[in-house]
Write a structure and sequence with these properties.
Strand order of the largest sheet: 13-14-12-15-16-11-19
Helix content: 40-55%
Number of strands: 19
Shape: globular
Distance between the termini: 69 Å
Structural class: alpha/beta
Largest sheet: 7 strands, parallel
């Protein structure tokens, strides 16, 4: 037996890691070391020759998690671990489609469009449906409704709803457009492999034989299609291990189905269940609160977080302020106190339910000169500047209609709606691509001025790969940034941003992207290397930003999977948590509250207000029902903020004097 894979595990972790065959549900509570179990089980199965590396498939929700698992297994197994397949559901689907593209009716060089581009395509189609108005529907809601139709195999609406009516009309036209463009969307990356797995034949047989062990991480976040995929993939052997925590299922609003993890034991008569309840992260006082909160949910797997760390005399706290302005000022001041006690800015997180709660605390931290970082807003690949540069790279490598339309007039080239309409009409009449129509702009009836702009764009796209891959004296990252300056993209950012600071931030995002691309091309500085990089970008393999010594401001959804010594949980009031508009599922809102609490390692500080401004006027705020569920003895409440301690007051004054001295005052 490979004891070195097991020596550091507790009895429950060891039980899970020793499981060889059949369905296994690992209920991994917050901070219970689930990644260690996944790594240990993977390594042991390979080392003991239960399976070969190539027969192991680990499905995750982030590429970061997959990379961590492979790196940790590789550190003990060496080169053998390279054969393990680990990645996201979408990258798994893409791999299958690349191999079996012919069987599914796709060309070899098919493309992938992300949800944002899919939304743009849908809204373009809507112009025919809604009298030329493509702003009449919310793109995100259209996409989620379309996904639900396709997931359920529906072609018709089953209720009187304007979005269902629109999608009923849109879906066949949208799918036809995808075929014309030779692209697949994110739904296709799951549905088309599933189609191959459910169609009898040699491809199905080969896929079912290939992976003899399948593990799924963060199983509580899977949707109905992902569940079908893993059950179908393992139907011959049922060697399916799923790891997750139903108490941390917080993505129902984007399609996650908590029933997958709740009902998993019902799907398999011989399902083994292992509970990981020992928490290595948080102090006992924090876990007492977490357990009190989550036990109020009735539809859940029974489990209780058991503290491993020592008890301290410090109870979690509730700071009560008159209004949100005093709340923001009080939290910022309290953070100053924590910093004087030895905590670093990176040790502190400020959590809130929705993005608009962050503005006041952000302003206070800026006023006090504390470094901070705000996350949970626009995702890296949803940023306009990142989407623009990816579109340029795609068109330079392999022109596609969606990215080409995006860059056609960015930066402005004087190519208006009339030019686009002429090119569209020409492409339809000649049955050629939009890009080919643009190359024949004279035949399409485009005037010479617009035609010269198109010619200039084609020349720029032709030169881009050369400047990235083969220029002497500059790196690919430098080449990309030089190209963007050359085409006046930096000037475009300065012109379209509300202020100079925003323009600088947007350019820094491009510098980060260029560095990521450069590091990737260092391994393969070729056209194929650039193509592979863009394929990873299609799957939104977001960069891991360097850790900086900053206070973290983030939404509760953004904090999942993270941990911090000191956590401020702001706005524990009705209408905020549970949220009046976004929180229709109270059980999920309670789970979200629980996720926030279990991020804290040492200190947990809730805040609430007596009055909060709503629609321009102050109204009485009501304490969140989730806070009221916690017995008073488990926390200390301070009305008007924390009482000023003499030592803390002196430390704050000393810190203030030092800042003034540094400023030369």
């Amino acid at each position: 037996m490979s004891s070195h894979w097991l020596s550091h595990l507790n009895p429950e972790q060891k039980e899970a890691a020793l499981h060889n065959y059949g369905p296994l549900l690992i209920l991994a509570g917050a901070g219970s070391g689930k990644t260690t179990v996944l790594v240990s089980r993977t390594g042991r199965l390979i080392e003991e020759k239960v399976i070969s590396p190539e027969q192991m498939c680990v499905l995750t929700f982030t590429n970061k998690a997959a990379r961590e698992l492979k790196q940790r297994v590789s550190s003990k197994l060496g080169k053998q671990a390279k054969g393990v397949w680990a990645g996201t559901f979408h990258s798994f689907g893409l791999q299958i489609l690349k191999i079996h593209h012919k069987a599914i009716g796709l060309p070899k060089q098919f493309g992938v469009i992300d949800p944002s581009d899919a939304g743009s395509l849908l809204k373009e189609q809507l112009m025919s449906f809604h009298l030329g108005d493509k702003t009449a529907y919310d793109a995100d809601k259209l996409i989620s409704t379309l996904s639900r139709f396709r997931e359920e195999g529906r072609k018709e609406r089953n209720k009187d709803d304007e979005y269902e009516e629109a999608v009923e009309w849109l879906m066949p036209r949208y799918e036809k457009k995808l075929r014309q463009l030779a692209v697949v969307d994110f739904d296709d990356l799951l549905l088309k492999p599933l189609e191959l797995l459910e169609t009898p034949g040699p491809i199905r047989d080969q896929l079912l034989e290939q992976y003899q062990q399948v593990m799924v991480d963060e199983f509580q976040d899977t949707n109905a299609t992902q569940m079908r995929l893993v059950r179908t993939l393992t139907q011959n052997h049922q060697n399916l291990t799923v790891v997750g925590d139903d108490d941390q299922s917080i993505y129902g609003w984007r399609g996650a189905c908590i029933k997958n993890i709740l009902d998993f034991p019902k799907f398999y008569d011989d399902c083994k269940i292992v509970r990981l309840e020992r928490n290595y992260r948080s102090r006992p006082a924090i876990l007492h609160i977490a357990n009190e909160i989550i036990q109020k949910n009735s539809d859940r797997h029974s489990k209780k977080l058991v503290p491993i760390r020592e008890e301290t005399s410090q109870l979690p706290e509730v700071l009560v302020f008159p209004s949100e302005n005093e709340e923001a000022e009080g939290v910022a001041t309290d953070i100053s106190l924590q910093l004087t006690r030895g905590w670093q800015p990176k040790d502190i997180a400020v959590l809130f339910r929705s993005n608009n709660q962050g503005a006041l605390i952000e302003a206070e931290l800026r006023r006090m000169g504390h470094p901070y970082s705000l996350s949970g807003g626009t995702a890296f690949f949803d940023r306009r500047e990142i989407r623009d540069v990816i579109a340029y790279l795609k068109c330079a490598v392999r022109p596609q209609e969606v990215p080409f339309r995006r860059i056609l007039n960015v930066p402005s080239r004087g190519l208006g709606d009339k030019t686009i309409e002429l090119l569209t009409q020409f492409s339809e009449s000649k049955q050629c691509s939009f890009f080919e129509a643009a190359m024949q702009w004279q035949l399409a009836g485009v005037d010479s001025k617009a035609g010269q702009s198109l010619g200039s764009l084609f020349a720029q796209l032709k030169a881009l790969p050369q400047s990235l891959l083969f220029s002497l004296g500059q790196t690919p990252a430098q080449g990309l940034l030089s190209f963007l300056k050359q085409i006046q993209y930096l000037a475009h950012l300065e012109k379209t941003s509300p202020n100079a600071l925003t323009a600088q931030k947007r350019w820094k995002h491009l510098e980060l992207f260029a560095d990521i691309m450069g590091k990737y091309l260092d391994r393969d500085r070729s056209l194929q290397g650039l193509t592979d990089f863009l394929e990873r970008m299609d799957l939104r393999d977001a960069p891991e930003e360097e850790s900086t010594n900053e206070i973290q401001l983030m939404t509760l959804h953004a904090c999942k999977g993270l941990e911090f010594p000191v956590v401020y949980f702001m706005g524990v009031e009705e209408d905020l948590i549970p949220h009046k508009r976004l929180g229709s599922d109270i059980s999920e809102e309670r789970r979200l509250f629980y996720v926030g609490v279990t991020r804290a390692k040492e200190r947990l500080i809730f805040t609430r207000c007596r009055k909060r401004k709503k629609q321009g006027r102050f109204e009485n705020a009501v304490t969140s029902r989730f806070l009221l569920d916690i017995p008073d003895k488990l926390y200390t409440e301070h009305i008007g903020g924390r009482p000023s301690e003499e030592s803390g007051r002196k430390a704050l004054l000393q810190d203030l004097y030092k800042k003034l001295e540094d400023m030369g005052v």
